[in-house]
Fold these 2 entries.
Entry 1:
Amino acid sequence: NAGVTQTPKFRVLKTGQSMTLLCAQDMNHEYMYWYRQDPGMGLRLIHYSVGEGTTAKGEVPDGYNVSRLKKQNFLLGLESAAPSQTSVYFCASSYSAGGYNEQFFGPGTRLTVL
Amino acid sequence: QKEVEQDPGPLSVPEGAIVSLNCTYSNSAFQYFMWYRQYSRKAPELLMYTYSSGNKEDGRFTAQVDKSSKYISLFIRDSQPSDSATYLCAIRQGGKLIFGQGTELSVKP
């Protein structure tokens, strides 16, 4: 099993450009999450999904959109990138949202917006 | 006030030292508490979890929750250079996790 994979691993954008980050999991998990990680800020939740066809906003959703058309995939879109969106983006998935909600993370995408 | 606060460090200790990592939280209703470990430029991984109050031990690691003071701790005994990583506390709120800022730990040989 590959677990959680993310595409691409690195990307450099210019201000105003758009892009989509792809997250895929092969563990048949219902729940999927997108986080961003900035120095000294920990992991902050952008959007999450509790199942195929559903999405919800997290702590820092502005400037991002998401879609979960298939259970195994969760896409994060930036319509008009800004330098403030320079960050490391992590996708995660979990079997359940209850209990201690163990989340399995992908390797991350390093995004730089110039 | 953030729901979870964690001293970002960095923290540098000599090999063999006892390390104490700490977080405070704001909502007394929280019941599930986790510690994730993240090696440099890698994905976070669940290290330990505790439910409600008390201690949980796993080898050299002990997770402790003090609900009266809303304080969670991770202790590492006989620390090793391989323990050098960022440690993130996390609390479950509904179907989501709230993470602390992370503490960067360096264990020097």
Entry 2:
Amino acid sequence: QKEVEQNSGPLSVPEGAIASLNCTYSDRGSQSFFWYRQYSGKSPELIMSIYSNGDKEDGRFTAQLNKASQYVSLLIRDSQPSDSATYLCAVNTYNFGNEKLTFGTGTRLTIIP
Amino acid sequence: DTEVTQTPKHLVMGMTNKKSLKCEQHMGHRAMYWYKQKAKKPPELMFVYSYEKLSINESVPSRFSPECPNSSLLNLHLHALQPEDSALYLCASSHRRGEPEAFFGQGTRLTVV
């Protein structure tokens, strides 16, 4: 079982609709969860972080975390063509001096005008 | 300030060359990472330097060697690379006063000829 799993897509969503991205992880000791956006040829850009169960909203983005189910999701409301990118889920398991940030394979999102 | 600076942005090197990649951050982060990313793949962790302790992904060949001169700087020394080592090399840092968000530099595009 992969440590962090995502649907690779591609996921196509009409402009203005809600895009829903999902991620599961295997290590119950994981403490921090991140969503990164990566445009082709560029480095990952942090767009959301979440540490406790529930929802966290930031503008058009909402991250959801359920530690019991080992599940993280990202919702993008009012999707824009500029949201077209690969979205990487990352999970951080941290003990002093033993840092581990692991990425999923990424979901390629295309917003259709 | 969430800047991680990597130099150079692009590097072409022969298989007999020795070169170094440089990564610098001035955010007070206590963990720094090197990742390798091939096209259409997620970042793959190579090394972590966290709280003055180096952790190594054992699958990384010895032709890659990290060096951490101080808490703000993480170098990656390259020697006798192979064409399959051509990739985007990403540096990231995290953990400023308990904030685990990891931020990436813009990457170094490495081509081995």
